[in-house]
Amino acid sequence: MIDELAGRRLVVCAGAGGVGKTTVSAALGLRLAGRGRRVAVVTIDPARRLASALGMHGLADQPQRVPAHELLGAGGELWALQLDAKATFDRLVTRYAPDEAARERVLGNRIYRHLSGAVAGAQEYMAVERLHELVEEGGYDHIVLDTPPATNALDFLDAPERITRFIEGRALRMLVRPGLAAGGLGWKILHAGSGTVLSLLERLTGAQLLRDVGDFLAGFEGMYGGFAERAMAVRRLLGSPEAAFVIVSAPEPDPLGQAVALAERLDAEGFPLLGVVLNRVHPLPPGGLPRAGALEAALADAGAHDPGALARHAAATLEERQTLGLRDLDAREGLTGAIGGRRVVEVPALAREPVELAGIAEVGAALGA
């Protein structure tokens, strides 16, 4: 997998929440940097576990270099940053504001301050927007994006369109029409048409909330086209030969179902799917299952205390490991068939969670040379 990714500038790790996307993203970045490349990993991990694992005190919106010199090849650099959705949205507003007054009108608006980080899809959209910014800056050979955790792993693909629909929404934009100032004829007509809701809003806010919404949307006048064009540019970038999608899954029903659905969606929409990382796979115990009697005799010969109890415990443990191994083997075979025979790379279940750089390197070793 690392060989194939070496020719791609953008790597997008996607999948259900809780499958180890952040760890796999970091491991891919580490392996690519180990080839002497300059690599940036964009993470959205709110618990900031990645910073600790990488030996750093914290991550911010701007890239910081990871102190992993002993694990990297000559000239290799690994950089990491934590997504700040609002800071990215602020830069997007600054880019497309027609003038300084419009920019300040939006950035200083309290509705914007709430919505820039809370609108459905904002975090997902800003994640791919931040990736686009890094590509335009041109300072990295590879950029690895750890997509935001979501109930539905497909959310990030829909985010640009959802954000654009929200900003251009007719129900909200009608509030910026000149006749709808509080107290004007338009306001009275709107009030008469939806009296209960607006009457309540008037009593609670003195119509200030609706004025703020109006100011927010008026500030966006002239920016709608720029936002829509940027969303289309992001989508083109993700569908280009420069990009590669890697789905991360675990050998359990829900993540596997989402992985298959995501693979089908990526194929249907022409996104370049490279393969699937099946994480936390349990191998089958080598040599099959020993009989408890033979195991007890061997333990007795070795001088073990209470060899019968120890043999029963060992046999039960091996049987449980075999059950997990068979389950995960079935998961791999079913997944490979469901995604059209594409590459599936297994990462074994480690004895300890990869919460430090050595653990991330161990995950990376399973992904290829």
Task: Please tag this protein with its features.
single chain; 2 domains; 17 helices; elongated
Question: Can you describe this structure?
Answer:
With about 375 residues, the chain is an alpha/beta fold. The protein folds into two domains: about 10-280 and about 350-365, 3-Layer(aba) Sandwich (Rossmann fold), CATH 3.40.50.300; about 285-340, no CATH class. Helices cover about 55% and strands about 10% of the residues. It has 17 helices and eight strands. The chain has helices at about 1-5, 20-35, 50-55, 85-95, 100-105, 110-120, 120-135, 155-165, 170-175, 185-195, 195-205, 210-220, 225-240, 255-270, 290-300, 305-340, 355-365, and strands spanning about 10-15, 40-45, 65, 75-80, 140-145, 245-250, 275-280, 345-350. The chain has an eight-stranded mixed β-sheet with strand order 3-4-2-5-1-6-7-8, sandwiched between helices. Strand 6, helix 14 (about 255-270) and strand 7 form a beta-alpha-beta unit. Helix 4 (about 85-95) packs across helix 7 (about 120-135), helix 8 (about 155-165) runs antiparallel to helix 13 (about 225-240) and helix 15 (about 290-300) packs across helix 16.
